[in-house]
């Protein structure tokens, strides 16, 4: 079977669905290809900072989530070995206007809020990418041909890879594979049927080579995590939970251990933390003609600033803005040769922003889990949380802009 589409997006995660919504807002139809049989909600939950809410405002979906999730105004960071507690206040404003603060939300809720904005036939599940081919059409124009494993051939004027850290599209562009950070993470939800009793505040616990924490999602559920140096946690969820309790967090405060004991084992996950080194984003091929990448396919990063999902939403709005402006100038048409310039402009805008976020996330993680060296501990306790953390937090005060308005 052969199909023709204006835009094909590979991956129905946050970046893919948000990009499809952004394109719909500017009058461009896209087809989203997802290799799984349904939406993947790996990670259970995520934290969205003010920059993400600005992007969701531009996409027209923030109003679905803000009534459900309450912002957190501060976090408590406890040094497990000394008992010292640092307070960290979260930003609640952006560019002088009232922002949405920092909210921890269910990943599935975000995916569903985005998917509801799209026509039912715009997402095709069980569609695994097999190969990509670029066909020249004469002049500067080209068409991308996507081959699926089920034998389907799709010709498209634009191809956007939102297919995660091991992106097929990124590999086709020539981007080097992400590398391991030397750390891994366990993530899950804790469920307290009678209520957990915590205020809407984030709690983190730092020890030598380990960091853990939890944040309320609502009155009964908490998102929790543990990050440690690279370990091979194998086995079922119950075994991973036992390792956290008995090996990795055995000296952590009882309040954290109780949260882990209440874990919903059906969605508990373990995964190594990987990232794309910043110089590979600076010098890498992030686009080729009318093909590009967004989200983790472009800039996988460690979760230490909580910017993976946030930056994916930024990507969607920026890409939608450049493609939308090009389409408006062309009288509502997608002109392949014009798409190459729109995509190149998108890459130029996102390249350094992504590099900064990757670098800031890695440095934040290294500082918080750098080990037991006295000078590093002193630097972290006396300088990092008091000064540098605030500077890194400024990265979330970012406005990705708005989508262009199209005439009826």
Structure, explained:
By secondary structure, the protein is α/β, with parallel strands linked by helices. It has one domain: FAD/NAD(P)-binding domain (3-Layer(bba) Sandwich). Helix content is 35%, strand content 27%. It contains 11 helices and 19 strands. The strands form 4 sheets. Strands 1, 2, 9, 10, 11, 12, 18 and 19 form an 8-stranded mixed beta sheet that branches. The chain has a 7-stranded mixed beta sheet with strand order 5-4-14-15-16-13-17, sandwiched between helices. β4 and β5 form a beta hairpin. α1 packs parallel to α9. The chain is globular, with a radius of gyration of 21 Å. The two termini are 34 Å apart. The relative contact order is 0.18.
> How many domains, in number, for the residues?
1
CATH-scheme architecture: 3-Layer(bba) Sandwich
The topology string of helices and strands comes to EHEEHHEEEEEHEEEEHEEEEHHEHEEHHH
- Provide the CATH superfamily: FAD/NAD(P)-binding domain
Mean pLDDT: 89
**Sequence stretches where pLDDT stays below 50 over 5 or more residues:** 94-98
Spatial shape: globular
For the sheet with most strands, the description reads:
8 strands, mixed
Given the structure, what is the number of helices? Answer: 11
Please report the first level of CATH classification, the CATH class: Alpha Beta
Distance between the termini: 34 Å
Protein name: FAD-binding domain-containing protein
InterPro entries: FAD-bd, FAD/NAD-bd_sf, MOase
Family: Belongs to the 3-hydroxybenzoate 6-hydroxylase family.
Organism: Dovyalis caffra
